């Protein structure tokens, strides 16, 4: 049984398929069994979050667990306590699962190494965001009715600084998907995957497109004059997409009219809120698999 999820590589393909099936069972069930009653789950987030933290909270409460969000801004971290001491103090209170988000890429590896309780990485710097990639996979799995083999996904934007892209680039090819990276040169990581600077070219072959937010908080140089300059070449627009019936994904938060134009966010092809919805069921399946006795 998995006890620490740092990145998607911690799960093998059959464990992942089992999570997708369990998430879909939760999705279609009328009443959810409170399988995590008495389990204590704490979220320790050093970076802001809307969807991820609320999704974990919703998932935990649907399963009857006790969920608490630790307020980092008001903690003794500001009094000089080390991160490790904060972790050990939380754990000493009898935690079953700690969920963290931190701006350092190696944070999740460090946290996991020093904890005895179960652990989920909810975003570590630019390195990994495994539950986002798993919920993206679930969205695609359901959309294509399980037939992912040979489908091409164009991932567009600040790939180099995106932990969501990183996790998806590891996960999606394992289920037969082809990944094309679409970005200006300074947003591309060193990679063996196909790349292009032309969104139009990528859309001609893509079966699905995933937009990303420009991670300005992680840039040390201003790479574009403004996000509007970037949007001229990389914003996903209805005019570029034409009538192609391909799903549009984005992990959120969306920079409207920079990543995706307003009209496309209201288009039936847009799966952004479906991703958010399925994220709750995916996280229920994951936490249940880690904690249910
Ligand atoms: C992403 C993240 O935090 O990595 N958001 C999320 O969890 N859904 C993407 C982002 O912040 O751009």
Automatic annotation (TrEMBL):
MF terms (GO), sorted A to Z: aspartate carbamoyltransferase activity
Residues binding L-aspartate: 79, 163, 213
Pfam families, per database record: OTCace, OTCace_N
SUPFAM superfamilies: Aspartate/ornithine carbamoyltransferase
Top class in the EC scheme: transferase
Key words, A-Z: Pyrimidine biosynthesis, Transferase
Domain called Aspartate/ornithine carbamoyltransferase Asp/Orn-binding: residue spans: 149-289
Gene3D superfamilies xrefs: Aspartate/ornithine carbamoyltransferase
This protein's pathway: Pyrimidine metabolism; UMP biosynthesis via de novo pathway; (S)-dihydroorotate from bicarbonate: step 2/3
Self-association and partners: Heterododecamer (2C3:3R2) of six catalytic PyrB chains organized as two trimers (C3), and six regulatory PyrI chains organized as three dimers (R2).
Record-given protein name: Aspartate carbamoyltransferase
Native source organism of the sequence: Helicobacter baculiformis
